[in-house]
């Protein structure tokens, strides 16, 4: 086994364990803890649909010499998931106990009194029964394709010495999963019951007296399928049709996980496994009574406000607010917005202003994921109505948003927008806007480069940077990126931007190599990388080389990290943390000390091979000294976090960073809000960027 490398799938599970830690943290408000259970569950669904599906495919189709390796990884994943599921069940019960302490009760059908039962029956007949479509299973007909976003009741019916099986989809897409009912007579408190438990109360009535039932027992099941899409390399007028067909195939994709109630009787379980064709490589996971815990993400707060996380007010940007308009502001200085601390409305204001400015000639934007009722899209359509030339790149392969993006591309096309449907073989993941404005006899660029999607909804819960700039050199190169997307046979020179797949790898590795040379010369050196995932093998090997040369490397990695810090003779100068808090940490920020003249970059690209080599991504330098200082201060706060920062190390144990007795608490997200509001930083330990040239040691064996 390679001790210098952590399989990305196991590292991802370690990240989801950090989410579960938040669900178990008594200092987190209880409603937020319940919602973390939902986030954990939602994450796990996607993990199986994408990452486990990939490993499963490799275990089947890779060379014979590699198949056993992937099968062993599948078993490691299964064991780790089982442990996490057991931990989830413990945390779930503890949180229900805490809800009860707050007089909020989530009960099952066996805990109802007579009045509550009557209420549930009435609610069932008036709201639920018409939504139910039971399916009686038999050997003569194929089992129906299960909707993987849903949960089902697998039902065992007993009558006249016969046993029949049925399936019933729980209609959570039409009805709330958690429904409030009256409290017990004479008791105080607020009571919720799940939709499936309401159905259990009235289960015989689902079958409308067709069978003279003696018993009817229901057990929850959930199936997760391979989410891989099979797509043609050609982007032609039939591309949307091919995407639509691929989405239909996804709904029939191979199963990769089957979760079932551990109390399910063997005859029903064996029947389902056989009829669904589940095999050895499919993860069959016994669980508790409830599945699709992702619905906890929308768990209501029935108690006082303090039981939920307190929202932070958005911070105004005075230089924009006091300017005549946002375009005139950008002519004076670059702006760096940091969501959700700053309002996403500033971004939509940029587009709305450009849409009605008579001097603006054209707008280009790349859309990966947008909100369902997007003000960004409205502004772009308004620009067409105001006679601007508008070009929008819509990435149809944005995973799980494909259907929405097909509809979006049609809406934009109908509105007169020139729509480009991505690049053959590459996802367009860059976050760009290019506005061209006529100023005198010349045309000038107003440009946006960001780390996150143009999505108002996620901008309230994801942290991300948006650079707004009048820098004409950057503007010209962003325009060239759009030209590459439209005509990808063209090749452009990029002196400022790192552009995947053209020069990102070369630029990134070159920056690391410069720090290695600085260390060897005795100059100031250091690397700070903040990202979602770090799994590119070539970059990791070079970071090991940098560490061995004495370069201090600091990593802030939210999710997967295949690099192993702290190995003697290999990575002892590398430290890594992961921050999981109320906002999802989403930006990519890269800082290189560069012999005392630090270089700062923001990027749409994670440090993964697919992002560096097989997507259209943009890494942009931050040249403004005030913005560099702002960026450094935010990263310094994150590096000093001793409340929500976990240590990433060889053990993958997710231990919290130790806090010195003499030092105060540093919770970076709250302190970042204070810093952006007031401009004041707390006293932080000074970071040492002097070269740490280690004495030669015996090389760590890979």
From TrEMBL:
The gene is ppk. Catalyzes the reversible transfer of the terminal phosphate of ATP to form a long-chain polyphosphate (polyP). The keyword Kinase applies. PANTHER family: POLYPHOSPHATE KINASE (PTHR30218:SF0). This is Polyphosphate kinase. ATP binds at residues 43, 462, 558, 586. Its cofactor is Mg(2+). It comes from the Bacteria. GO terms for biological process: polyphosphate biosynthetic process. It is an enzyme of class 2 (transferase). Belongs to the polyphosphate kinase 1 (PPK1) family. Residues 6-106 form the Polyphosphate kinase N-terminal domain. GO terms for cellular component: polyphosphate kinase complex.
């Amino acid at each position: 086994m390679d001790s210098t490398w952590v399989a990305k799938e196991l590292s991802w599970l370690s990240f989801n364990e950090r989410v579960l830690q938040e669900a178990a943290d008594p200092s987190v408000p209880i409603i937020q803890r319940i919602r973390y259970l939902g986030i954990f569950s939602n994450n796990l669904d996607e993990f199986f649909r994408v990452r486990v599906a990939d490993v499963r495919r490799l275990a089947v189709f890779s060379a014979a010499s590699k198949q056993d390796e992937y099968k062993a990884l599948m078993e490691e994943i299964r064991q780790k998931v089982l442990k996490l599921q057991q931990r989830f069940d413990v945390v779930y019960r503890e949180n229900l106990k805490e809800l009860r302490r707050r007089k909020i009760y989530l009960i099952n059908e066996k805990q109802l009194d007579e009045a509550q039962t009557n209420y549930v029956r009435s609610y069932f007949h008036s709201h639920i029964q018409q939504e139910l479509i039971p399916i009686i299973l038999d050997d003569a007909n194929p089992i129906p394709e299960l909707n993987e976003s849903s949960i089902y009741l697998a039902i065992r019916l007993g009558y006249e010495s016969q046993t029949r099986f049925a399936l019933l989809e729980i209609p959570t897409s039409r009805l709330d999963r958690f429904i409030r009912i009256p409290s017990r007579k004479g008791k105080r408190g607020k009571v919720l019951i799940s939709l499936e438990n309401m159905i259990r109360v009235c289960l015989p009535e689902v079958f409308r007296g067709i069978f003279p039932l003696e018993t009817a027992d229901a057990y929850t099941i959930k199936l997760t399928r391979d989410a891989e899409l099979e797509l043609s390399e050609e982007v032609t007028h039939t591309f949307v049709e091919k995407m639509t067909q691929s989405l239909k195939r996804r709904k029939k994709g191979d199963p990769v996980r089957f979760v079932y109630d551990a109390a399910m009787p063997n005859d029903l379980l064996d029947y389902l496994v056989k009829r669904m064709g589940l095999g050895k490589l499919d993860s069959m996971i016994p669980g508790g009574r409830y599945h699709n815990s992702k619905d906890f993400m929308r768990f209501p707060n029935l108690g006082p406000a303090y039981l939920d996380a307190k929202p932070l007010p958005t911070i105004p940007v005075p230089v924009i607010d006091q300017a005549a308009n946002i375009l005139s502001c950008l002519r004076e200085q670059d702006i760096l917005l940091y969501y959700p601390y700053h309002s996403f409305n500033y971004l939509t204001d940029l587009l709305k202003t450009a849409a009605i400015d008579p001097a603006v000639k054209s707008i280009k934007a790349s859309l990966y994921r947008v909100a369902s009722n997007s003000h960004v899209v409205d502004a772009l359509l308004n620009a067409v109505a105001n006679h601007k030339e508008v070009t929008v790149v819509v990435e149809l392969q944005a995973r799980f948003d494909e259907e929405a993006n097909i509809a979006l591309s049609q809406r934009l096309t109908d509105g007169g927008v020139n729509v480009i449907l991505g690049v053959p073989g590459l996802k367009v993941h860059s976050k760009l806007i290019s506005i061209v404005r006529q100023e005198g006899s010349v045309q000038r660029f107003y440009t946006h480069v960001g780390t996150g999607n143009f999505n108002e909804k996620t901008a309230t819960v994801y942290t991300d940077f948006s650079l707004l700039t009048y820098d004409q050199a950057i503007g010209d190169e962003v325009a060239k990126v759009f030209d590459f997307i439209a005509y990808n046979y063209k090749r452009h020179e990029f002196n400022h931007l790192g552009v995947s797949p053209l020069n990102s790898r070369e630029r990134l590795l070159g920056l690391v190599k410069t720090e290695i040379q600085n260390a060897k010369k005795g100059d100031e050196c250091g690397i700070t990388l903040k990202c979602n995932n770090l799994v590119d093998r070539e970059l990791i090997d070079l970071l090991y080389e940098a560490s061995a040369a004495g370069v201090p490397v600091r990593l802030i990695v939210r999710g997967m990290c295949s690099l192993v810090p702290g190995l003697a003779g290999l990575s002892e100068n590398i430290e890594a943390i992961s921050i999981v808090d109320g906002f999802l940490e989403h930006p990519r920020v890269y800082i290189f000390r560069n012999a005392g003249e630090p270089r700062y970059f923001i990027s749409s690209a994670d440090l993964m091979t697919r992002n560096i080599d097989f997507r259209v991504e943009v890494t942009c330098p931050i040249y403004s000294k005030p913005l560099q200082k702002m960026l450094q201060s935010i990263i310094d706060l994150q590096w000093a976090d001793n409340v929500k920062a976990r240590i990433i190390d060889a053990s993958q144990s997710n231990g919290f960073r130790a806090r010195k007795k003499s030092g105060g608490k540093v919770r970076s997200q709250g302190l970042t809000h204070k810093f952006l509001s007031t401009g004041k930083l707390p006293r932080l330990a000074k970071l040492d960027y002097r070269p740490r040239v280690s004495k030669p040691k015996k090389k760590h064996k890979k």
